[in-house]
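Example with several molecule types.
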Amino acid sequence: MKSSTLLWFRQDLRLTDHSALFAALERGAPIIPVFIWAPQEEGDWAAGAATCWWLHHSLQSLAQSIINCGSRLIIRNGSDHGSLTQLRILIEETNASAVYWSRRYEPLIIKRDTHIKETLRAEGLEVRSFNAALLTEPWDIQNNSGKPFQVFTPYWKNSAAKLFVPSPVKVPNKWPAPNSWPATENVNALKLTPIVPWAENFKLSWRPGEQGAMENLTLFLSTVAKDYTEGRNIPSIRGTSRLSPHLHFGEISPRQIWHIALMYRGTQFMAELGWREFAHHLLFHFPHTPKEPLRADYNRFPWREDAAQLRAWQRGMTGIPLVDAGMRELWATGWMHNRVRMVVASFLVKNLRINWLHGARWFWDTLVDADLASNTLGWQWSAGCGADAAPYFRVFNPVTQSLKFDPNGLYLRRWLPELAKLSNKEIHAPWECDVATLNKANVRLGAEYPKPIVDLKVSRVAALEAWKTIRQLTK
DNA sequence: TGAAATGTTGGGGCG
DNA sequence: ACGCCCCAACATTTC
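Resulting C-alpha cells for the full complex:
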C-alpha cells in the first residue's frame, strides 16, 4: 500500500467538486487533510481582518465535515517558518509520499507554490496541483493575436463560446485514514478573530462554510434569481446571490454554480461569474496591478492626500447618504451591495480624488469577500485606470443613484437611522432641505449627521479637470 | 455597470 | 383656429 497523501487545503474549503480530494481518494492511500496558516507569504495582501474572521469559522466548518468522513483536519501554524517547512515536518511525521492541492493565482502565491512543488519533487515526492476555483484558468484563453484579453465582452464571448464546464465531482463520504494522526493546532490558536469585538455581528449576516454556501445558493435559486436583472441593482433587498465570500474561500465551486445557472438560463448572473474569471485572468497576466495602474499614464494622476476625508469616507461620515449607508453596511456586515460599491468608489476616487489604493486597502481589510483579483479589477475599473475601465469622465452622482436605486430610502434608513424621519424626497440630499424641515425630522446637519464634506458639483468638475491634465501630459 | 448640457419634439394653456 | 410660449419627455453630444 502506498504511503499517505497530504491534502493541503488553502482556498478550497469544501468537499464537493474538489478535484484534488477526488484524486487523493483515487490514489488509495490514507489521506491527511492539512491547513497551514502562513500570512507572511501573502506579501502586502495577507488576509484582512474581515476575511480572517471568515476563515476562522470556515475552518471550523470544514474540520467538522472532515470528521464526518472519518478523517481529521490537521492545522499547523506556519507563520514563523513557512508552509514548506510545515509540509516537510508533516511529511516526516506521517511518512507521506504525495502532496496534492488546489491552485491559487496571486502572483506571490504562484511563486511560492512553484518553489514548493519543485523542492518537494526534487526530494522524491509526488506533487500535483488542481483547478478548483475557476471555469477557465488564466493561461487557457487568449485573443487572436495570442495576447491576454483586456476587454470583458470579447473575453467572455470567447470564453463562454468554447466553454465546456465539467460536471461537479462527487466524492465518497468515507476516506481512508492513517493508523495514527499527527498533532494539530486548535483553530483558536491561530488567533484569526479580531481582539476588539468588531465582527461579532457578522454572524447575523453570514454562515461561513460549505453548508452556508449551499444555503445561499438554494435561496438564490428559489427566490432571488427570478428578478435578478432588476433586483441585483436594488441595495435594500436581497437581490444578489451573496456568494462572493463563499467563492473566495472555495466553499462552493464556480462549476456548481454554473451548472445550476444553466438550468434556469441565468445569463446575466453567469456574466457575474465571468467578471470573476476575467479578474483572475488579468491578475495572472498583469501581476503588477494590485499596486499599480494598468494604464501607466495614471501614475501621474494628481491624487489628493487628505487623511480627514479618507477617514470620513471609511466611517460613513461624508454627509452623502448613499455613500455613508454603503460604508456603514460594510463596517457592520463585512459586505456591501455591488451597486453601492461602485458609488462609494466613484466618490472616493473622483469627488475626493483620493488614490484608489487607499480604497482598495480599506476594502481589503473590511470585506469578508476581499479577493485580490476582484478587488484590483473593481478599483481600477472605478478609477478609470484599469482594463475595460469606466471612462474617466464617468462620475457617479450619488444622489441620482440614490433616487434611482433606493427611491423609498429603505436602504438609507436601515443604515442611517438619524435620517429616518426625512421624507422619501428629502432623505437623499439632506443639505438641500431647509432648516424647518430638518428640525421637524430631528436632524441638525453638523451634529447628528454631517454636512457634505465636498460639494458634489464642484468636485465633479475638479475631477474632470484633473483627468484632463494627465491626458494632455500623455499627448 | 453615467451625468450634465444641449437639442428636438409635441401636447396643452392661453390670448 | 392660430400663433406663441412653456415645459415635459426624449434624444444627442459632450465631458
